Amino acid sequence: MAVAARLRSAGARLVVGPAAMAVGRGGGGEGRWMGTATAEAAAGIARWEPMGAREYYDYRRAIYGDITHKAILVDAAGTLLAPTEPMAQVYRTIGEKYGVNYSEDEILMRYRRAYAQPWGRSRLRYVDDGRPFWQHIVSASTGCSDLQYFEELYQYYTTAKAWQLCDPDAKYVFEALRKAGVKTAVVSNFDTRLRPLLQALNCDHWFDAVAVSAEVAAEKPNPTIFLKACEFLGVKPEEAVHIGDDRRNDLWGARDAGCDAWLWGSDVYSFKEAISINIHIGSPAQDQAGSAAYSAGSTPIRIY
């Protein structure tokens, strides 16, 4: 029963038999849920399948009643921001003059392998500026330990040239949210380059707070980083919804902290869509004014 309750709280539904063979929504997390679905479906064994945002909302509303979100938390890399060029291409292009001769496919494979391994020097990957961790990753990915090469890469990823917004309409959405009195924060596993990077991209003023793992000494999916973000914003966890692209770090981590969470690229594909889900998003001052819009299944926040 305890396991079932935890799975329900994480946003899952029970399926039995052939239904368990269905592929769940979302990115790389399905293997955790569906790895032995075929055999278990044949045996009629019940399984848990991830919920979408609207299904999860209906489930939450059935238990707790109407929900008002007064804050939106958003992941940085992969949700708010994306690299302008593939990582392996950048590592190889810059690395050619330093003797890097691995192909992009080889660099990507080695990067993934290095990144997946435990970081033995600290319980956190990103401590302060994250240089020791990233030196290890760059060296393991390319076979090149030249410090000048590393510094060139490191500095490149601090510039606006290296990043772009995932959603070209993000500016209008976050400005509308701020105007409406909704609190906003970035919650990210990142080093201390994140704040200057947001400034370089001219989007730092969209957010009331930034909870970056290197500063709060906790990395997603640890609930602490989400609780810190809520503390910075002055809201309760149940009053916040987090949007991120990683099922484990963003979806499960936020829900473990008591926040709602939507999976970017699965539940929602844009920030405008995120705030138009059948849920009331607004500041306390808007609660009464927005009740009619809420009853009609829309958000009181207008995006131009």
UniProtKB/TrEMBL annotation:
| Gene3D superfamilies xrefs | HAD superfamily/HAD-like, Haloacid dehalogenase-like hydrolase
Q: Read off the InterPro entries from this record.
A: HAD-like_sf, HAD-SF_hydro_IA, HAD-SF_hydro_IA_REG-2-like, HAD-SF_hydro_IA_REG-2-like_cap, HAD_sf
Q: Which PANTHER family match?
A: HALOACID DEHALOGENASE-LIKE HYDROLASE (HAD) SUPERFAMILY PROTEIN, PTHR46649
In its UniProt entry, what is this protein called? N-acylneuraminate-9-phosphatase
Q: Which organism encodes this protein?
A: Oryza nivara
